[in-house]
Specification:
14 strands, 288 residues, globular, five-stranded antiparallel β-sheet, FAD binding, 3 domains, 12 helices, CO_DH_flav_C, Carbon monoxide dehydrogenase, four-stranded antiparallel β-sheet, alpha+beta
């Protein structure tokens, strides 16, 4: 059995303490939330932090609540809490739907939304959902809090706009207005449950029945989670027939660098991204 390299363990009891530890140990430290991404990497020695800062017991970062025109979710809220939240089922059913497809029950019991988003695995499910819902991501560092739009958060594979001494503490989701439907669809790797290609779709229909707004995010196929702007532009202002949708999703990964590995070639992933995007958009329309 693989075992991690030696490290020092630091259980943090507050956000301020965790930030201080990040400042103290710098590049030699890693944050531990749910641990389902970091621990396997450490066991394979792909990641070898000298200091592990455990933020998993900071209870103040685990919540789902309503604040005026937003729903806010703490960074340490677990997948199972999201999956079972009546508040999210009412306002953002896309999140519980996608979360139910993450890993297995053991992973969903321990894994956290903040850990997933901060890790920025391009094959993970929740980065696409957070992007499609146009979330505001609140982070905290030595200089205080700042808010990063989801559109600006995902930089590259395993790379985000988080500074090394910042912690992701909250997601703020603006409530939808108008007639809106959403859906998540993915082609999953049967062993890992990660997305070979996935799509989160949010569609709003105007009074004349045409698409007045669209937010389409692709995950799994590209080297980072992306908004499929070409698809959105092709949908907005149109009556969404099957023909219109099929033409729109053919542009799902235009101009993007694709993941190429043993699970799929570039051509295969481009085609599968279009397939899951069409399915997600069609189901989102049905749910309006």
């Amino acid at each position: 059995m693989s075992v991690p390299a030696a490290f020092d363990y630091h259980p943090a009891t507050s956000v301020d303490e965790a930030i201080a530890l990040l400042q103290q140990y710098g590049d030699e430290a890693k944050l531990l939330a749910g641990g389902h991404s970091l621990i396997p990497a450490m066991k394979l020695r792909l990641s070898q932090p000298e200091h592990l800062i455990d933020i998993g017991k900071i209870s103040s970062l685990s919540y789902i609540r309503e604040e005026q025109d937003h729903i806010v979710i703490g960074g340490l809220t677990t997948y199972v809490q999201i999956e079972q939240s009546d508040l999210l089922r009412k306002h953002f059913p896309l999140l519980p739907e996608a979360t139910s497809m993450v890993g297995d029950q053991q992973v969903r019991n321990r894994g956290t939304i903040g850990g997933s988003i901060a890790h920025s695995d391009p094959a993970a499910d929740l980065p696409g959902v957070v992007l499609a819902l146009k979330a505001e991501i609140v982070v905290q560092g030595p200089q205080g809090k700042r808010t990063i739009p989801a559109d600006d958060f995902f930089v590259d594979t395993f790379t985000t706009a988080l500074a090394p001494d910042e912690i992701l503490i909250e997601f703020r989701l603006p409530k939808a207005t108008g007639s809106t439907g959403s859906a998540y669809d993915k082609l999953a790797n049967k062993a890992s449950h990660y997305a070979i290609a996935g799509c989160a779709a949010v569609i709003t229909r105007g009074q004349d029945g045409s698409c007045s707004a669209a937010s389409i995010a692709i995950t799994g196929a590209t080297v980072r989670t992306i908004r499929a702007r070409a698809v959105e532009n092709a949908l907005v202002g149109k009556q969404l027939s099957e023909t219109v949708i099929a033409e729109a999703v053919s542009h799902a990964t235009d101009g993007e660098d694709m993941i190429v590995d043993i699970h799929g070639s570039e051509e295969y992933r481009r085609k599968m991204a279009a397939v899951v995007a069409r399915r997600a958009i069609m189901r989102a329309l049905e749910r309006i």
